[in-house]
């Protein structure tokens, strides 16, 4: 069962920095960048062109698999702009993944929350870039309905037929799209669930996430930014699957 999306946010106030993050910083500044719905934290280490990011999750959080994410980043970066996995590890307190920074800022930073129409259109365009660029025939990762239904908490009925099989992001919510300063798409992050699936598995949730992050009325801009007409049947099914897995 998915955790409520409102639990994910840019941290405010004091954030306890895990010891491994202090070590990886090597004296650089440490800036909390994101807290996910599971309590995992992302920190920016340093600033400028040499900045890095470290994702950390406490021991005993089974939904996060950093080795799988590092593998997917390495595969995907042959075709699209994504962070480069530098290192990863586990200690008594938790697990971590260190990556390079990539150009752009999250689509849920305050400047884009204040300009939701621009951000929503860029999210849609960014998904189209990903779906068109990654070669589904060569993808070794699976995010199919059949695989996901094995973990579903409710009976969703038979799935709709596949519209277009692509390599999906797997967590195409607004925070995982980065935008350039001019509001155009820059890059994707958090590809831990990347795999082959119908494009609507991504599209339905990406558009839905604009409601969580910007309020109602912007989902249509995701579809138009992607260049597709909304498919109500597939949108409903894949949103139900997202909630149930």
Task: Write up what this structure looks like.
By secondary structure, the chain is of the alpha+beta class. It has 2 domains: 5-100, Phosphorylase Kinase, domain 1 (2-Layer Sandwich), CATH 3.30.200; 105-244, Aminoglycoside phosphotransferase (APH), C-terminal lobe (Aminoglycoside 3'-phosphotransferase, Chain: A, domain 2). The chain is 33% helix and 20% strand. The protein contains 8 helices and 10 strands. It has helices at residues 19-25, 66-76, 110-113, 116-133, 145-149, 199-214, 219-226, 232-244; strands at residues 30-35, 41-45, 52-58, 85-90, 94-100, 105-106, 165-168, 177-179, 185-188, 195-198. The strands form 3 sheets. A 5-stranded antiparallel sheet has the order 1-2-3-5-4, with helices on both faces. A 3-stranded antiparallel sheet has the order 6-8-9. Strand 2 and strand 3 form a beta hairpin. Helix 4 (116-133) packs antiparallel against helix 6 (199-214) and helix 4 (116-133) packs parallel to helix 7.
List the helices and strands and how they pair.
Layout: H1 19-25, E1 30-35, E2 41-45, E3 52-58, H2 66-76, E4 85-90, E5 94-100, E6 105-106, H3 110-113, H4 116-133, H5 145-149, E7 165-168, E8 177-179, E9 185-188, E10 195-198, H6 199-214, H7 219-226, H8 232-244
Antiparallel strand pairs: 1-2, 2-3, 3-5, 4-5, 6-8, 7-10, 8-9
């Amino acid at each position: 069962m998915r955790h409520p999306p409102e639990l994910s946010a840019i941290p405010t106030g004091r954030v306890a920095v895990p010891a491994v993050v202090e070590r990886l910083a090597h004296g650089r500044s440490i800036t909390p960048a994101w807290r996910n719905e599971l309590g995992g934290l992302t920190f920016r280490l340093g600033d400028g062109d040499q900045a890095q990011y470290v994702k950390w999750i406490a021991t005993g959080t089974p939904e996060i698999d950093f080795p799988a994410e590092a593998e997917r980043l390495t595969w995907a970066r042959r075709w699209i702009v994504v962070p480069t996995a530098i290192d990863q590890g586990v200690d008594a307190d938790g697990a971590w993944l260190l990556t390079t920074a990539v150009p752009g800022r999250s689509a849920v930073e305050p400047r884009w929350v204040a300009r939701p129409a621009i951000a929503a259109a860029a999210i849609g365009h960014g998904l189209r870039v990903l779906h068109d660029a990654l070669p589904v025939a060569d993808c070794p990762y699976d995010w199919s309905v059949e695989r996901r239904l094995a973990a579903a908490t409710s009976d969703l009925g038979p799935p709709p037929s596949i519209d277009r099989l692509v390599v999906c992001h797997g967590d195409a919510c607004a925070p995982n799209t980065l935008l350039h300063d001019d509001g155009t798409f820059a890059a994707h992050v958090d590809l831990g669930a990347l795999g082959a699936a119908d494009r609507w598995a991504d599209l339905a949730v990406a558009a839905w996430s604009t409601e969580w992050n910007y309020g109602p009325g912007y989902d249509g801009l995701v579809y138009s930014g992607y260049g597709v007409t909304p498919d109500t049947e597939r949108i409903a099914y894949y949103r139900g699957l997202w909630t149930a897995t």
